Amino acid sequence: xxxxxxxxxxxxxxxxxxxxxxxxxxxxxxxxxxxxxxxxxxxxxxxxxxxxxxxxxxxxxxxxxxxxxxxxxxxxxxxxxxxxxxxxxxxxxxxxxxxxxxxxxxxxxxxxxxxxxxxxxxxxxxxxxxxxxxxxxxxxxxxxxxxxxxxxxxxxxxxxxxxxxxxxxxxxxxxxxxxxxxxxxxxxxxxxxxxxxxxxxxxxxxxxxxxxxxxxxxxxxxxxxxxxxxxxxxxxxxxxxxxxxxxxxxxxxxxxxxxxxxxxxxxxxxxxxxxxxxxxxxxxxxxxxxxx
Length: 292
Fold this sequence. Notes:
Layout: E1 2-6, E2 10-14, E3 24-34, H1 36-43, E4 52-53, E5 58-65, E6 77-80, E7 83-84, E8 88-89, E9 102-105, E10 109-112, H2 124-136, E11 141-145, H3 149-158, E12 164-168, E13 181-183, E14 193-196, H4 202-211, E15 216-220, E16 235-238, H5 246-253, H6 256-262, E17 263-266, E18 279-283, H7 284-287
Parallel strand pairs: 11-12, 11-14, 12-13, 14-15, 15-16, 17-18
Antiparallel strand pairs: 1-2, 1-4, 3-5, 3-9, 3-18, 5-6, 6-10, 7-8
Helix pairs in contact: 2-3, 2-5
């Protein structure tokens, strides 16, 4: 079968179909959300094992289930989250969704109604992180480092919950301004907590430095193996998770205007990496393998 893999670069190859493990689902991709994860692989900031199938987030349809998974999931559509507690990062540490048939852990699949789909639902992983940060950082002075989807959506969601929200931009020249978020050029001691979303190497040094101070450092958990080295104190993780209220927040709070500011659309996967916006929605049915 054909798949988009990492093999000294991002390429399409014929590979052997993966077996369905007991607690896994076999899925076909419908849409993929290209984010900073794929950008980091492309740029060499994030190493993945050769022949790993890429694609961390997307809309898929279940075609078969493992023996420990309810067969009623067959035929269901849903969103794939980029991280499994048991297996690690999807499309980074284990195979992702960009193949004619992919095999993913059940715990990363969030069922949706096929007649109630909205492209905004692809933001589910980032909104789930934002909802958790609201509880963790209420009343704090929080600096967010990085202006990808994780940073932008978290900043938007923390306004009105954190006492103060700042953003130190890292990557995109396409700058999206968020009401209530202070633009920061350097780090000082006025912040109680710092949420580091960039995957650039200097972030690891920053984590070690900040954790020695009385500052809480928070990192998004998209992989078990990144960052490679961490101090033991004052570092917390927040991961994409299945939570109540995520779809409701997206429908009520993520406007079409904001969504189109942070996400672009394409029928061509290879021209979408690296992405020109924080996220690119790729219609896999038009651009890659098959019609769904």
